[in-house]
């Protein structure tokens, strides 16, 4: 299996985000990339450079004004008198008759859905590199590779049609799925990050040509809180094509594998031509976000189960934060996936 990577992703170093009323250390650090690369090397994947794609590709799942905000918004922010070096929202768009504001403070409130997505001076090139990594992996699979791993940073699955959230800006998995749809009539996205893939759900919620299945810690007690419930099944043409499988916070290997079995049955029944896997390693028992209790060896078992679907598969890196185990967890997954094939 090929791994796709761009070293540009070592940029974008926000210092802080808002958690429980406090500005705390930003967990999506560039060091994650180095540790994930160690995992790729341990699994002996060949590493290939990401290609560059045009903005029109990102607009397959995001609005043009959102892409423009990510690309150019910081330049406007910098011109504000006394603005801080990290763009953050200060206002929230509420339901009701509201109008999109052209002012950068209005746009920041509109497009940044929570307080975990600061934008710094080099964010756009890193966000773009992450999306291009996913799209390069999707291109390889569309061209006939059996599978490819996209080492993406920042992650993407919380990014909605025009809103960033949960350290995510462009939705890498959604972009990969949209790209694969040009080759396959039906594509499934399976999300095994500890957090619900709420951005992915929102982007495809009304569609029946991309199935979305997410296993995640109970949103009653865990981010993203408003989405990820089993009753959220899709609307209009998309009704019945969105599936949420909830496990308890700090669930162990058995609970996650039981959830995965259900998810795999749903994917099989949908008869998709290709799979996008949102691979979060933040289910691990030592992950600092503290949402799961999955062991390193269980990643290999879960990978083999997914691999047994025998579908062309693009594996997209989502969460998984700094622990001494991050590289080993990725290696465990990638080796398990290849052995399952
Ligand atoms: Zn996560």
What's this, in brief?
This protein is of the alpha/beta class and 341 residues long.
The CATH architecture would be 3-Layer(aba) Sandwich
Q: Which spans have pLDDT < 50 for at least 5 consecutive residues?
A: none
Question: What's the oligomerization state?
Answer: single chain
Count of discrete domains: 1
Which radius of gyration do the C-alpha atoms yield? 18 Å
Determine the mean pLDDT. 97
The percentage of residues in β strands lies in 15-25%
Provide the list of bound ligands, each named once.
zinc ion
Under CATH, the homologous superfamily reads: Histone deacetylase domain
* Fraction of helical residues: 25-40%
Distance between the termini: 10 Å
Shape: globular
CATH fold name: Arginase, Chain A
Give the topology, please:
Layout: E1 2-5, E2 16-19, E3 22-25, H1 31-42, E4 46-49, H2 55-58, H3 64-79, H4 104-111, H5 123-142, E5 147-150, H6 172-180, E6 187-191, H7 198-204, E7 210-217, E8 242-247, E9 251-252, H8 253-270, E10 274-279, E11 292-293, H9 296-307, E12 313-317, H10 326-340
Parallel strand pairs: 1-4, 1-5, 5-12, 6-7, 6-10, 7-8, 9-11, 10-12
Antiparallel strand pairs: 2-3
Folded structure, characterized:
- This protein is α/β, with parallel strands linked by helices.
- The chain contains ten helices and twelve strands.
- It starts with a strand and ends with a helix.
- Helix 3 crosses helix 4, helix 5 packs parallel to helix 6 and helix 8 packs parallel to helix 9 (296-307).
- It has helices at 31-42, 55-58, 64-79, 104-111, 123-142, 172-180, 198-204, 253-270, 296-307, 326-340, and strands at 2-5, 16-19, 22-25, 46-49, 147-150, 187-191, 210-217, 242-247, 251-252, 274-279, 292-293, 313-317.
- The strands form three sheets. An eight-stranded parallel sheet has the order 4-1-5-12-10-6-7-8, with helices on both faces. Strands 2-3 form a two-stranded antiparallel ribbon. Strands 9-11 form a two-stranded parallel ribbon.
- It has a single domain (2-50, 126-340), classed as Arginase, Chain A (3-Layer(aba) Sandwich), CATH 3.40.800.20.
- Strand 2 and strand 3 form a beta hairpin.
- The protein binds zinc ion.
- Zinc ion binds at residues 193-195, 280, 282, 318-319.
- Zinc ion binds next to loops.
């Amino acid at each position: 299996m090929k791994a796709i990577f761009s070293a540009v992703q070592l940029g974008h170093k926000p210092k802080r985000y808002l958690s429980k009323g406090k500005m705390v250390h930003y967990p999506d650090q560039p060091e994650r990339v180095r540790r994930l690369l160690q995992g790729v090397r341990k699994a002996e994947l060949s590493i290939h450079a990401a290609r560059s794609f045009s903005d029109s590709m990102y607009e397959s799942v995001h609005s043009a004004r959102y892409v423009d905000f990510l690309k150019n918004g910081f330049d406007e922010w910098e011109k504000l008198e006394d603005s801080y070096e990290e763009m953050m929202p200060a206002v929230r768009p509420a339901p009701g008759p509201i109008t999109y504001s052209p002012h950068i403070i209005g746009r920041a409130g509109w497009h940044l859905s929570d307080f975990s997505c600061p934008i710094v001076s080099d964010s756009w090139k890193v966000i773009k590199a992450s999306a291009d990594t996913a799209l390069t992996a999707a291109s390889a699979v569309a061209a006939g590779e059996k599978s490819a791993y996209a080492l993406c940073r920042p992650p993407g699955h919380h990014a909605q049609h025009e809103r960033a959230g949960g350290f995510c800006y462009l939705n890498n998995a959604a972009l990969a799925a949209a790209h694969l749809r040009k080759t396959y009539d039906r594509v499934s996205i399976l999300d095994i990050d500890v957090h619900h893939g709420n951005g992915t759900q929102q982007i495809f919620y009304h569609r029946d040509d991309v199935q979305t299945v997410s296993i995640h810690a109970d949103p009653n007690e865990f981010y993203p809180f408003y989405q990820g419930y089993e009753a959220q099944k899709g609307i209009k043409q998309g009704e019945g094509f969105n599936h949420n499988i909830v496990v308890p916070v700090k669930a162990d290997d058995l609970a996650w594998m039981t959830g995965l079995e259900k998810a795999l049955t749903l994917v099989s029944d949908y008869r998709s031509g290709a799979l996008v896997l949102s691979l979060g390693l933040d289910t691990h028992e030592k992950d600092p976000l503290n949402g799961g209790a999955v062991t390193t060896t269980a990643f290999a078992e879960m990978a083999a189960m997914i691999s047994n679907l025998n579908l062309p598969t693009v594996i997209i890196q989502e969460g998984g934060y700094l622990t001494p185990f991050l590289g080993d967890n990725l290696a465990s997954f990638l080796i398990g996936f290849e052995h399952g094939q």
